[in-house]
């Protein structure tokens, strides 16, 4: 016959405490697992979405990276299906699906990074930060894009669209080169999301709109500084492991050919 008599009170208390601790530990482990897996970054190879792994590595936050190959030049259908915009980057955080580089950067930095890499309004460098943060993807990247599209359209070199694009690119490079003559980073003394944003335009984007950085020594030194950051190196190895980084002055062979 099995003895069904209750445990002594002190043993009941001990057993209850042990069981409570086991349940609490299990719940915390499950919560931790969910937190680790919550952020998914969808990256299209050789594209501007490399910015997002770079940011995540800088912030040292956990994320799951999904890499997509081009089919053959544009995003594959499975990536396009994630968001109506149909382009990379795309991030997913639980029920949230978000596209657009700047939006993804702000979302991640503020939700997962406590606003790190965003210069605050009380900082003397705030105005400079705002300008270069928006300049990187609001002015400079579209300028390079116009150069790319005019070449893809096969316009002759003397066409006004081609001439305008080239002049715009040169003006942007001159402005950036001047800024970096006396500043380590775009915002000034602090590395920020402005630097995360512009690095793609100065490097990988040159596979699509090939241009030289010869004569822009301050930009070249800046590119080297960014490329030596551990976070950048980790991000590029994960996002585009087989791609040769474009860090020097010479224009690379176009990916369009």
Automatic annotation (TrEMBL):
<dbReference type="Pfam" id="PF13409">
    <property type="entry name" value="GST_N_2"/>
</dbReference>
<dbReference type="InterPro" id="IPR010987">
    <property type="entry name" value="Glutathione-S-Trfase_C-like"/>
</dbReference>
<comment type="similarity">
    <text>Belongs to the GST superfamily.</text>
</comment>
<protein>
    <recommendedName>
        <fullName>Glutathione S-transferase</fullName>
    </recommendedName>
</protein>
<feature type="domain" description="GST C-terminal">
    <location>
        <begin position="122"/>
        <end position="245"/>
    </location>
</feature>
<dbReference type="InterPro" id="IPR036249">
    <property type="entry name" value="Thioredoxin-like_sf"/>
</dbReference>
<dbReference type="Pfam" id="PF13410">
    <property type="entry name" value="GST_C_2"/>
</dbReference>
<dbReference type="InterPro" id="IPR036282">
    <property type="entry name" value="Glutathione-S-Trfase_C_sf"/>
</dbReference>
<dbReference type="InterPro" id="IPR040079">
    <property type="entry name" value="Glutathione_S-Trfase"/>
</dbReference>
<feature type="domain" description="GST N-terminal">
    <location>
        <begin position="36"/>
        <end position="116"/>
    </location>
</feature>
<dbReference type="InterPro" id="IPR004045">
    <property type="entry name" value="Glutathione_S-Trfase_N"/>
</dbReference>
